[in-house]
Recover the amino acids of this structure.
């Protein structure tokens, strides 16, 4: 998982730089940066959501995935984890959880994550993940300058998710065709739109509780291929 480890490193370095900037920016500037991140997140989500036209599968995966996530209460679990980390760090940042969740979703929902994990999982050089690492490094500077130290700790779920995809691909990589990638990217894009609305405080959508939709869309795509 060389690509993922380097990705984790660039995010940590970028977050440290962003935190230095964060202490030097007034509240007015951090708020406008926060709004810029929200608008960009919606834009990125729309671009990704248009990757697939399997609308029925996407709707079914979002509904069923959201119900499963709500039953598991993933968001409450993540909030508790964030609060524990915040308490141990003695951080007074009121956007700690927001920073962790936002960074994780932005860094992990893109097709580059999926394609990069597949590339490395199949034994190739992690070129895509290295490119992504550079992009995430710069992205973490902007995010942590607006949201604080929580962005740095997004590397924990990122390592589990992205590294897990790499290991999973090393076993089942031959089954990841383009249609799976496009459908997964599309669902991820819709989740980012929800995240953008949340960042802009338009609607407090429980995006984390919708994460099981990413697994459901793969299952539905597989079932459809059998039919």
């Amino acid at each position: 998982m060389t690509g993922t480890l380097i990705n984790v490193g660039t995010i940590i370095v970028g977050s440290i730089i962003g935190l230095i900037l964060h202490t030097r920016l007034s509240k007015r500037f951090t708020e406008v940066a926060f709004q810029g991140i929200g608008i960009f997140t919606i834009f990125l989500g729309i671009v990704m959501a248009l990757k697939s036209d399997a609308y029925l599968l996407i709707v079914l995966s979002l509904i069923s995935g959201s119900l499963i996530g709500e039953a598991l209460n993933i968001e409450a679990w993540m909030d508790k984890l964030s609060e524990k980390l915040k308490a141990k760090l003695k951080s007074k940042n009121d956007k700690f959880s927001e920073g962790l969740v936002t960074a994780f979703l932005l860094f992990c929902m893109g097709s580059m994550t999926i394609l990069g994990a597949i590339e490395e999982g199949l034994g190739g050089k992690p070129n895509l993940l290295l490119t992504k690492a550079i992009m995430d490094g710069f992205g973490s500077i902007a995010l942590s300058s607006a949201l604080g130290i929580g962005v740095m700790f997004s590397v924990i779920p990122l390592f589990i998710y992205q590294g897990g995809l790499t290991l999973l691909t090393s076993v089942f990589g031959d089954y990841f065709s383009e249609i799976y990638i496009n459908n997964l990217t599309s669902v991820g894009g819709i989740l980012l739109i929800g995240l953008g609305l949340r960042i802009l405080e338009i609607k407090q959508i429980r995006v984390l509780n919708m994460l099981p939709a990413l697994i459901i869309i793969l299952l539905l795509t597989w079932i459809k291929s059998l039919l």
Summary: The chain has a mean pLDDT of 87. The chain has ten helices and no strands. Residues 27-49 form the longest helix (23 residues). The CA atoms of residues 105 and 192 lie 7 Å apart.
